[in-house]
Amino acid sequence: xxxxxxxxxxxxxxxxxxxxxxxxxxxxxxxxxxxxxxxxxxxxxxxxxxxxxxxxxxxxxxxxxxxxxxxxxxxxxxxxxxxxxxxxxxxxxxxxxxxxxxxxxxxxxxxxxxxxxxxxxx
Amino acid sequence: xxxxxxxxxxxxxxxxxxxxxxxxxxxxxxxxxxxxxxxxxxxxxxxxxxxxxxxxxxxxxxxxxxxxxxxxxxxxxxxxxxxxxxxxxxxxxxxxxxxxxxxxxxxxxxxxxxxxxxxxxxxxxxxxxxxxxxxxxxxxxxxxxxxxxxxxxxxxxxxxxxxxxxxxxxxxxxxxxxxxxxxxxxxxxxxxxxxxxxxxxxxxxxxxxxxxxxxxxxxxxxxxxxxxxxxxxxxxxxxxxxxxxxxxxxxxxxxxxxxxxxxxxxxxxxxxxxxxxxxxxxxxxxxxxxxxxxxxxxxxxxxxxxxxxxxxxxxxxxxxxxxxxxxxxxxxxxxxxxxxxxxxxxxxxxxxxxxxxxxxxxxxxxxxxxx
Lengths: 122, 371
Prior knowledge:
The complex is a heterodimer.
Chain A: E1 5-10, E2 20-24, E3 27-33, E4 38-42, E5 56-58, E6 60-63, E7 70-73, E8 79-81, E9 88-90, E10 107-108, E11 110-113, E12 116-120
Antiparallel strand pairs in A: 1-12, 2-3, 3-4, 4-10, 5-8, 6-7, 8-9, 11-12
Chain B: E1 17-23, H1 27-30, H2 38-47, H3 81-90, E2 95-100, H4 112-129, E3 137-142, H5 148-159, E4 164-170, H6 184-193, E5 197-200, H7 219-240, H8 243-246, E6 252-254, H9 262-275, H10 287-291, E7 295-297, H11 308-316, E8 323-324, H12 337-341, H13 347-361
Helix pairs in contact in B: 4-5, 5-6
């Protein structure tokens, strides 16, 4: 394991869809078990600085046509909503759904090996 | 120890006055402070189901929206002064000026005596359980628009108490608008007591303009109309009826509208005034000059793509000593003081916005810790 990789806990401790805060070297990160994949990001909302780990995973609404069907969906993504103002971030990219070019949080590779969740800050 | 002047100002480097925080007042909390028969009313309401800002007969709302999974931020409330002080400490806020939650809708009640009694009860409750110079929690005297004479008495009563530093003018569902001469007793009392008046709206659907939005599908349309449009409409009537001329020592503050509508109002009113000066017979100067003398709370702070545009916006109305910080804590659209402090203002403008201008406006003492 390189020095940039940190063991942040057992896979079983991360419930699907429940964001969790971990601290490494005084910095906070939010780790989410998306069901098929883990995601990690800085635990600081790009908007006004709330802890994203206090938010929750959810879907988003989408409509193709006026009067058409309104979908409530995730599109296979792990979407994390900030607890303060409701901004929603795609945890795979760190980008906010409504303003992806301007509002983003830094994301980090995270993977599971031998039942342990490993966060890479490189 | 002196601060390194090369470092950006941090939250602990500035005196922060938050000009809009909300105390939650469930009916049962006000019941001990209200006269009969209304005490019985509030006791009954206190035993019934209570939804957030949605209590028939107390915080009425025409809620036409279905519940939808896209929301779910939760509705934060602050129910005690201790809780408020602790949460403002978390936000590095030194002083908070209190507004109600439920009674943001007090202007809609057609029963004048009930509305006046609610206003008196709220002011008494604030005085008894919330305001304190030691904790930096100050009150804004609720002026019930339905009964301006009673409101004026309340302003004189609580204006003599140095824990009350402003007068709250409800906006949601108000009719007529705040420029109407029926409100003159409120302005006379506020000017006499040296208390700024603070207009504050809230989201509601109601027959009175500009809240008659029952036909509007989306909340993201109704919300800014409920706030900024309502403030503009009230400002226009106050200008046209000469409130700032007839009460020259009265300070007027607009809350929860941000600042970017102010230049529009200046220029639009100047244009109207130039064409139809008889429409504002009290004015001695163009409307824009009075508008520049009023105060504007930051929340919800504009977040333009180029942050410096906000500085330009403030300069358009000479607002460097007229813009004052507000968070709107604990409401869903609150602004963290860091957001405003990190805007590309120079250090003096930051100090002015975050607290110095409000300290002067509300004649607040400076706590020893930040003096």
